[in-house]
Fold this protein.
Amino acid sequence: MGKALNVMSRRLAAALMSHHRGRWLLTAIALAMAGLGSLGALNPGPAVADEVRYTLAGRVVQVADGDTFTILAEGKQRRIRMASIDAPEVKKDQQRPGQPFAQASKDALAKLIAGKTLTLHCFEKDRYERYVCDVPLDDGITANQKQVADGMAWANMEGRGKFMRDPELPGLEDQARRSRIGLWKDADPVRPWAWRYQCWQKQQC
């Protein structure tokens, strides 16, 4: 079949080239196909904003808080910011105090991933040069989902959800809230993005 198609293609090209108008048509077809090939290289798949762009594998060497940790990958330490969630802020300094449940959230994440070798599904780097990633676990869920389901982090709806990539997280947060577990033991916990603005930037803690 492939041989026959090749023969037919050569005959068609020869026929077109025998006419002036045919040569122009053949050139136009070639240019169009080249253009399509360039578009394919730039956009190899469907335009899905939330698609995983690359994987990153390494061993967890430090857990900074409930949504940030460091891995050792190819001999380099790389900071990871977990996608789609926001955990209570730990204390940074006197001007940036921590939130309730920050230590509990950090400890919960450490229990899930500390010392493990993980393959992360990453999307981009943020403005702090951290890799923004989902963190798959052996049981088929992500550490991102586990933190939210256990009341140790929020589904990150800052900026009307522009950082949200996992559509399951708001539902998991709602379940944790209704069960009054983790940070939801507090009747009205302050979302971390509000804490960073009100407490850290405006000094209104």
Observations:
- The helical segments are 2-17, 20-42, 102-113, 143-149, 158-161, 169-179, 192-201.
- The beta strands are 54-65, 68-73, 76-82, 85-86, 117-125, 131-134, 154-155.
